[in-house]
Each structure stands twice: as C-alpha cells, then as structure tokens.
Amino acid sequence: MSEEKQQVSRRQFLNYTLTGVGGFMAAGMLVPMLRMAVDPVLQESAAGDFANVSLAVEDITNEPQRVDWKIKQVDGWYESEVTKSAWVYKDDNGDIIALSPICKHLGCVVSWEGSEDYPNQFYCPCHDGRYYKSGVNVPNTPPTAALDVYEQKVENGMLYLGNAQPQGEA
Ligand code: FES
C-alpha cells in the first residue's frame, strides 16, 4: 500500500499566500471606508448637550423673557447652525422655568402677552391658541397640550438649556 503524498506545490502555496494577503489588505481598506460612510448615522446626536444661552440667573425675573441661542446640529452628514428660543422666568418658588415657544397646535411661535385681550398668557397668533404662564394650554383653545419645557442647569451663575420635553396636558 503506497502512502499518498499530500504536497503543496509552489503554485498552490503562492495562490494561498497571495489570496490571504490580498484579502487582508482589502479588508484593511474597506473598514475605514465603511466607517466613514456609516459613522455619522450611528453617532449620538449632540442634541442632548446643554447650551449656554447667555442669560445670568440673577437677570431672570418672574416676567417671561425670550432668549435665543444657536446650536450646531448634525443630521447624518449635514451640519448646520440652528437658532433655538425659549421663554424663561422664575416661578413663585424661585424655580427657573424655560418653555419652548413652539405652539403645540400646528407649530407657530407663541409670545408672552402676545394679545392685549389675554394678559398674563402666552398667545399664538395663528389660531388664537393660548397658554397659562405655566405653559399649560388653556382649555377650549386649539392647542391640546402644554408647551414643552427645556431641560436646564446652572453653571457659574449662567443658565444652560438642553432638550425641550413635553409636560402634562390640561
Ligand atoms: S398653531 Fe398655534 S394655535 Fe394653531
């Protein structure tokens, strides 16, 4: 009985080696390309970051004042600067309240005492939407939910605002 020789020819050896090295190099090139293509989609949004809205806490009164600030927004591969706004005041307990000015009916912008007919309320001119000072919607007006309220923190006496979150309904 003859023993079968399992020899690898020089040609086969080169084939295996070059295929292995070639595959390794291709993977090395593909991984960074894939990362570049997919990474912006997977990256966490910076929306959760807090922004300094250039308002000192000592300058906040119990009268709502509007503050505007800019944030850098990354949407996939598109980077843009977005202006955000809030109505900020201190409530009776001295707590800072920062309300979104976006009407919960169809998204117009509300103003504090925007109508002479409704003092001490936020007013939306689009369809006569109204909100109490707390941001809660006035029943029987078009908005069906309270104004969103911003996450907030205070650092070195300055107000920082984060995301606007929904609050309770009337
Ligand atoms: S959008 Fe504000 S009341 Fe309609």
UniProtKB/TrEMBL annotation:
It comes from the Bacteria. The keyword Translocase does not apply. One of its GO terms (molecular function) is oxidoreductase activity. It comes from Virgibacillus litoralis. PROSITE patterns: RIESKE, TAT. SUPFAM superfamilies: ISP domain (SSF50022). Keywords: 2Fe-2S, Disulfide bond, Iron, Iron-sulfur, Membrane, Metal-binding, Oxidoreductase, Transmembrane, Transmembrane helix. Residues 88-161 form the Rieske domain. It is an enzyme of class 1 (oxidoreductase). CDD domains: Rieske (cd03467). This is Menaquinol-cytochrome c reductase iron-sulfur subunit. PANTHER family: CYTOCHROME B-C1 COMPLEX SUBUNIT RIESKE, MITOCHONDRIAL. InterPro entries: Rieske_2Fe-2S, Rieske_2Fe-2S_sf, Rieske_Fe-S_prot, TAT_signal. The chain crosses the membrane at residues 12-34. The lineage of its organism: Bacteria, Bacillati, Bacillota, Bacilli, Bacillales.
